[in-house]
Amino acid sequence: MDEHWRPQFVFAVCQHGAEAALKRELASRMPALRPAFSRPGFVTFKLDQPCSQPATFSLHGTFARTSGFSLGSVKGDRLTDLARRLWELPAVAAALPALAISGLHVWQRDERVPGDRGFEPGPTPLAAEAAKALRELSPAAALRDGGFEHDQPTPRNRWVLDVILVEPGEWFAGCHRATSRIAGWPGGVPPIDLPDYAVSRAYRKMAEALAWSSLPMARGERIVELGCAPGGASQALLDAGLEVVGVDPAEVADVVADHPRFTHVRARAIEISRKAFRGVHWLAADMNVAPLYTLDAVEAVVTHPGVSIRGMILTLKLPDWQLAAQLPQFADRVRQWGYRDVRLRQLAFNRQEVCLAALRSRGQRRVLRSPARQQRRIDSAHKGIKPPHGALPEQ
Predict the structure, then answer these.
(1) Between 118 and 371, where is the model more confident?
(2) Dmax (CA) of the chain
(3) Average of per-residue pLDDT across 172-179
(4) Which class for 179: exposed (0-12), middle (13-18), buried (19 or more C-beta within 10 A)?
(5) Sheet holding 262-265, edge to edge
(6) What percent of the chain stands above pLDDT 70?
(7) In angstroms, what CA-CA distances link 74 with 65, 108, 163, 165?
(8) Quick check: 99 and 178 in contact, CB under 8 A?
(9) CATH number for the 9-188 domain, one of 3.30.2130, 3.40.1000, 3.90.1580, 3.40.50?
(10) What ranges do the domains of the chain cover?
């Protein structure tokens, strides 16, 4: 990388409607950022000083689905004109050789909140057409003749050119380094399809939570899901090879109830006997209640004598965006239960809510390195074939 390349403008993509929460969070964590251009689901910032270490820069925001350095914008009526103008942007022309960019991510800004009138984030026909025009006119052979597909995960440690279709006739250019699995997802959206047999879109949410959290789960282990009805998230867990105990007073779909590895406990989370958690390794919760109620219910389980939960995936609802300011306190509360590795992210398929993933310690992730665990881990179980929940291949 060119040591003289010092970018000063940053972009971040978030859920449609989460812009204010993102800005407030970053204002607290990174006061050197100054908000600039903004649209629903897309925000740019200016750094007080040019970034001296762009290869390691990250926003680390709960609401930042993906982020990078802003390289400018173009407007036009035709795809070929927009593509040509984008390649002519001075910042883009400078970044291509300086960073040896080998990946291209092209996506549209979210039109609506996920699940609203059938909308889901991810690849679109317009983004595919824009990527084709960009490749055909690219001055970089790595992007013109090969490289990684615009809508497919990019391997780690590559610099990626981001092209965000903020409007059909307005594109923003940026770049980021794929330093993690998440950073390899175009637009921060994992390639997860909703199978025909899924009983709800909660399937997508859980499949993404498993892919993002990378908890060291293995096929055959047991997980309790609080608030499981109608069963979409349980289906994703079952497809991952886990044994699922679903807790909910409401009925679950027959296709879920009849699964040989699913057990339905018809009770509220606060009523369930602790005997149900014997031999259980993991806990998930997605209840349509306030965050404190969810945390109260989970705390009653994980702090009970005789219960040993290794890790958790919790969905925390945010009926009021102002609750986002309390997320650090929610995370601290989970740490007080003995979970030292706690992370928060608003998943691409979340609605007005966030996902919390917790482990007793970061060292638990190392168990994935043993050959026996690698063969049984849930996110590599379907490696080499099309997985039922779109689990990502190892990179």
Answers:
(1) 118
(2) 66
(3) 94
(4) middle
(5) 262-265, 243-247, 222-226, 282-285, 311-317, 353-359, 341-345
(6) 89
(7) 23, 15, 10, 10
(8) no
(9) 3.30.2130
(10) 9-188, 202-380
Q: Which CATH architecture has domain 202-380?
A: 3-Layer(aba) Sandwich (3.40)
Amino acid code (one letter) for 44: T
- AA identity, residue 204: R
Q: Are 344 and 304 in contact (CB under 8 A)?
A: no
Name the strand (E) or helix (H) holding 26: helix 19-29
Q: For residue 260, count CB atoms less than 10 angstroms from its CB and return exposed for 0-12, middle for 13-18, buried for 19 or more.
A: exposed
- Structure token pair of residue 375: 């063969």
Backbone angles phi, psi at 20, to 5 degrees: -65, -40
Is 80 exceeded by the pLDDT of residue 363? no
Both tokens assigned to 302: 């994980």
**The model's pTM:** 0.89
Give the tokens for residue 64. Answer: 């930042």
